[in-house]
Every structure is written in C-alpha cells, then in structure tokens.
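Q: Sequence in, structure out?
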Amino acid sequence: MRLVELEPDRFVAVCDGCYTDEIELTRSDVVLHRVDERLLRKSMCAALDLRTSNAPVGALPGALQLGSHVIGQPLGVPVWLLGQQREHEILATLERFRGTDCPLIVVLWSDRMLTSAALAFDTPPLIVTTLDQVLVITAEGFEATKVWHTRLAAFRKAAKLAPQTSRHKKTAMAREGKTTGTPGKLKKAFKEWYLEAKPYLKQTGELRPRPSAAELGRKSGVSRSTASRWVTGKVPKPDEKLMLMWIGAIDPAKVRNFRG
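A: Exactly. Output:
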C-alpha cells in the first residue's frame, strides 16, 4: 500500500489496485520497512527448489527474477515474481514475457491479480500462477504447496522439458543437424542488430523491434526453423549467449548496455 500524508500527524494508506480499503494512520502507527530482496529470493527459491538468481533488481519495473527451474534446460526456466498492482501493467509484462518464445514461470503477488485476462496467458511456454497458490508460510518459513508441484510437473510435460536420455539426445542432435557454426552465425547477425539498435535507442528513446527468427536465419544463412530452435534454446545443447541476446533484445536496459 502507498502512504499519503494528509497532515503532519495524519496519514492514509492507499491501495492503488483498489483491493483494500484505505486505512487511517497516525505518525506513531507508521514504521518504515524495507524488503531484503536477497533474503526474499533465497527463502522463496529454497522452498520452491529453484536455483537462486543474481539478476539485478529493477531490470524490469515491478518484477523480480527469483531464480530458475533447472530441469530440462541447462540455463533453467526463469521464474519471475510480479508485484505490479494495475491490471494493464501486469498484462503488458505478461505480453512481454510471451514475446520471448522461451519457457517462463510467472508468479503474481496475489490471487486478486489473477484476472481472466491474465489467466489467458497461462499456456505453454508460459505458466502463470500466484504466491497464494504455490507458497504457504509456516513456523519454519516458506513451504511449497502441492499445487506448485502439480503445476510444475504439468508444465514440464506440456513444454517438453523432461530430462532426455542419451538415446534421445543423440536422435535429437542428428535431427537438428547441429553444427558448431550455426550459433556463431546467429550471434554475428544478432550482434549487428544490437550495434544498430543501441545508438538508435540512445538517440530516440525508442527500442527497435527485435528481429524475428526468420530475419536472423536469412542473415545467417540458416532456415527459420533452425534459427527459432537455437534462439529459444530448443536444441540439445543451447548456446547461453545466443539465448540471452534473444531475451535481452526486448529489454531497453540490455540493449543500452550491450558491449558485444
């Protein structure tokens, strides 16, 4: 809730999302608290069995990357916590996540934020849930619910993230026609886009549209389907830098700080 000072000793706590009634307060009622995001991440990731993220706070306003679910992908499936209150902000962030074409798990702060419009995003490669559904608070701290484990298992199956056997990996590699040159060609094409998008962003304040997999494929001399599988990590041995370039291309901060 947001604190508004009406008079020197009179305040009101306001919920911008209109989920809670206003609360009248005096100065003696007001105590300033600060969330320690490091401890929050650590405790939540321990309960949800995630690899804790070291991503900087504030990279995406109103959102915090808690960690990654590591089954099925070397880089893990990112798990984000959304603290945004206004529905249009939540929907804009979910749309942004969906645009990455990569598996993502999004945890909304409260059940009240899970509107029918937000729930429409709850299809692979996205899973959208809430803290109320996946965590409970016990005397020992956070504890994952059965809902979390059930949703996660269903998500892994739908997104085809189950661990592969050696036979499956060999078959997939043969089908992929994997060569060491493919990710290098795609990264080179992507680098050219970043080097053009970075000064454009600084001059205009606008982010250029991310190149499609088809566009990257044409510049790299590979097929659209092959380019798509590489940038989204749907190959046996994904290229970490290439995937980060793909995801970062929709983040102005990542484009602005690109160093090649």
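The longest strand covers residues 63-69.
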